[in-house]
Write a structure and sequence with these properties.
Blueprint (H helix, E strand, L loop, with lengths): L2 H27 L20 H16 L6 H20 L4 H17 L9 H22 L5 H16 L6 H21 L8 H22 L4 H10 L1 H16 L12 H7 L4 H32 L1
Helix pairs in contact: 1-2, 1-7, 2-7, 2-8, 3-4, 3-8, 4-5, 5-8, 5-10, 6-7, 6-8, 6-12, 7-8, 9-12
Length: about 300
């Protein structure tokens, strides 16, 4: 771990931690609480603007690194679009179609900046990249239904990326990885069960977007092959699988894929009597297993490739 990595991580952690008490006070003062209802599991009034601190920490940590590769400005603009959409949705509500249009726009901007899924010619490549980013964003959004899940799982996935890209000379990628890790850990101080603050869509959308960009950045740095293509997807297997099952479940009932329900994997465990902490630790463990498996597959593939 280099000094620059520690600076990026420390800056994002301190920024997030420093902002969270103010956000908590501001949200309580203006009664900006997560609304209760049949799709919610919490009973106490809980603010949900933690995504503001997560995004500020990520931006601060990446900025102090001083590394700005070509196209990173467009990626940052995409991040702001995704974050702003989530924040407006938290405060006032937005239709699913508007959110998807803005997420797709962010995907196009990232593609134009040079980050993409290495599949086929330009048309298929663009479509795959946009769908990739949309899937990650909404998978993390769906995972953010129980205390500590989205931030904790994202932290472990980021650690996987840190190990995965450790051999590449990519200061910007490292800065994003360590900044995101610092933000997630800082937020967990307020979100680990029992949560004092929720991240809201402005937080879960940013986490999903940032993880998708880290995956796309890895694709830029490694030769195109099926194993390397699947490793980042394996890392994020828990939120992606949970979201995939949710979409199939809703479509089978002739409902919108974005119609909320309380039948996610973590909901079922909570219904069985598991505590929120036990659920969080179980998801952390499963994510760590998938990350380890992904790292092993990548290492095995490289060793085989070197022998050929």
């Amino acid at each position: 771990m280099r000094q620059a990595d520690l600076i990026a991580s420390g800056t994002s952690f301190c920024t997030t931690c420093g902002m969270l008490p103010f956000i908590l006070w501001f949200a309580r003062r203006h009664e900006l609480y997560d609304p209760s209802g049949p799709l919610k599991i919490h009973t106490a009034l809980t603010p949900r603007l933690g995504g503001v601190a997560i995004t500020a920490g990520l931006a601060a940590g990446t900025t102090v690194s001083g590394v700005e590769p070509v196209g990173s400005g467009m990626v940052f603009l995409s991040l702001l679009l995704v974050w702003g959409t989530g924040l407006i949705d938290d405060l006032f509500g937005l239709s699913t179609s508007i959110r998807l249009i803005i997420q797709a726009t962010a995907g196009v901007l990232v593609w134009r900046a040079g980050w993409s899924v290495p599949i086929g010619h330009a048309g298929w490549n663009l479509l795959a990249t946009v769908l990739f980013i949309i899937c990650f964003i909404n998978a993390l959004n769906m995972l953010d239904g129980a205390d500590g899940l989205a931030a904790g799982v994202s932290s472990i996935v980021v650690i996987g990326f840190i190990f995965l890209t450790s051999q590449y000379l990519d200061p910007w990628g490292r800065a994003v990885e360590f900044s995101l890790l610092g933000s997630c850990i800082g937020f967990l101080l307020f979100n680990f069960p029992p949560a004092k603050l929720f991240m809201g869509d402005s937080g879960s959308n940013v986490l999903g977007f940032a993880l998708s960009v880290l995956a796309l950045n890895f694709y830029r740095r490694t030769p195109s092959n099926y194993v390397s293509l699947l490793v980042p997807i394996l890392f994020a297997g828990i939120p992606l699988l949970d979201a995939a099952f949710a979409v199939m479940r809703r479509l089978s009932r002739r409902l919108s894929p974005f119609a909320g329900d309380r039948e996610h994997s973590f909901d079922l465990l909570l219904r069985l009597g598991w505590s929120a902490r036990k659920v969080a630790f179980a998801f952390y463990a499963l994510t760590a297993i998938l990350v380890t498996a992904g790292l092993f597959c990548e290492a095995l593939w490289k060793s085989i490739a070197l022998k050929q």
